[in-house]
Amino acid sequence: MSSSTRLPRRSSVALQVLLLLNSVYFAAFYLAEILMFLYKGILLPYPSHTLVLDVVLLLLFLGLETLRIFYGWKGNLCERSLASCVSLFLLGACASLAVYYLLLQTFVLRLEVILSAILLCFYSLEFLLGGFSVLAFSRSKVF
């Protein structure tokens, strides 16, 4: 294949780096949330049914975030707009769970506010870069 017939690369390096950073940050966020739930469950008068609900939502958050990063990663590298759109759709669910942990828990610690705000900043950047990538993939002939 000669260099004149090569297809241009439309995958976003910035989005790929941001997905990698977000996966590392989410691992730290998840570990910190587990430790904070232990703290809140032991020292604060946290209702047991609410604590169970929050932990189940945290497990759901882990599953959704893993799927979102996987589809974003593969959609960007393979230049597939469908996988990138699935990742952007899951981004909405993950962002709503991050807002839940930011505002709607029974007890919200200051550390949770800071960590969730940083996570939402990652999500907003990924939404912008993912949207631009989907537009770039949609212009190509490959679906």
- Helix-strand pattern: HHHH
Number of helices: 4
User: Which structural class do you get from the secondary structure elements?
Assistant: mainly alpha
Estimated radius of gyration? 18 Å
Helix content range = over 70%
Largest sheet: none
Can you offer a commentary on this structure?
The chain is mostly helical. 80% of the residues lie in helices and 0% in strands. The chain contains four helices and no strands. It has helices spanning 13-43, 48-77, 81-104, 110-139. Helix 2 runs antiparallel to helix 3. The protein is elongated, with a radius of gyration of 18 Å. It starts with 12 loop residues before the first helix and ends with a helix. 27% of the residues are buried.
List the helices and strands and how they pair.
Elements: H1 13-43, H2 48-77, H3 81-104, H4 110-139
Helix pairs in contact: 1-2, 1-4, 2-3, 3-4
Write a compact overview of the structure shown.
By secondary structure, this protein is an all-alpha fold.
Structural descriptors:
mainly alpha; 143 residues
